[in-house]
Design goal:
Elements (H helix, E strand, L loop, with lengths): L7 E5 L3 H12 L3 E5 L3 H20 L5 H11 E4 L2 H5 L4 E4 L5 H14 L5 E4 L6 H5 L8 E6 L8 E6 L5 H13 L3 E5 L8 H18 L4 H10 L6 H8 L1 H14 L8 H8 L33 H17 L4 H12 L4 H5 L4 H15 L8 H4 L5
Parallel strand pairs: 1-2, 1-4, 2-3, 4-5, 5-6, 7-8
Antiparallel strand pairs: 6-7
Helix pairs in contact: 1-2, 8-13, 11-12, 13-16
Amino acid sequence: MKIEDIKSIAVIGAGDMGHGIAEVALMAGYKVFLRDIKQEFVDKGVSRINQSLEKLVSKGKVEQGLFDRIRSELLVPCVELGDAVREADLVIEAVPEIMALKQETFGAMDKLAPAHTIFASNTSTMKITEIAAITKRPEKVIGLHYFNPAVLMKLVEVIRGEKSSAESMQIGYDFVLRNAKVPVRVEKDVAGFIVNRVQAPAGVLLNAILDEGKIQPEQIDAVMRSIGAPMGPYETMDYTGLDISYHGSLYFAKTIHPDFACGKVIQAKVEAGELGKKTGKGLFDWSNGRPEIDLSKATDQFDLMDLVVVNVNEATKIIAEGACKLEDIDLAIVNATGGMGPMALVKNIEPADMTKRLEGLAARWGKEIFKPTQMIKDGQYR
């Protein structure tokens, strides 16, 4: 198969990520079957696609003719899984981050989809190899990890499972290009891939600060906002969903190191159903829209560079494992977040200073994952 053979796409899951992924493919001219388990979920996904496209048409970013074609023929909503995958050349799964659910979905799709169909998971953390193992076509299973909101964020991580074929990886890469996105190849199936893996230690540090209770979320977010960041780290956690952070932490704690376990404050919020924007309350109150961050509350008791160095330290681990090249780190993170790449931010910091800072953080917070790698000590991060 070649990219020219990919004509029909199925997106499984019509939620925040699924409907966005579907919209991106529709804008590239693909026929898209959008499926969810209930008609109301499908209808909501379709409505959100139409609302988004109406705005893009009004701004001149999408032609009216394409929008009309999407509504009349390209977008096919459905509830039955068989209807979604029966003629699909590529299926992109976007169901919740629960391994058992993903495996159940892939097992069912494997029986219903044509033999040539390539399966992709939009998982943000979970190993493609584990998901692929439930199918009889592991060579045709890859990761295509989009970032939220999928219509705006440029990066898509193209992830190789242990048995993914070169052909499947190339088709995935080319498909991303045809969707006007920036593909970055992840050549080894490491948990969290590039962006979420590299940024995970900052989440561990933010959780530790939150649990300690001496510095409030707004104080750190105010620091980030005051230097031009569009959103602080705690507001971002609320925006994407505290349940996403929680499940990701559980998986990382199980597959990488116990230090990645979720903090007590976040766990309590999840158990109380306070998941952030989607429920109206999380670390902040979203009931009246986006929370107001008082910039005057910016704290001087925390150095934001600590978040950067723990992430760079983690980046050196996946580079050493062969998941990607050093230059891929910033390419991925810049296009996933719109912010600066961590490797660029530390290129002028001496190895001795990086080592000392990381050793101090490891001791201060009791986190083994903050200890500097050999690549850090040798200055191979710049």
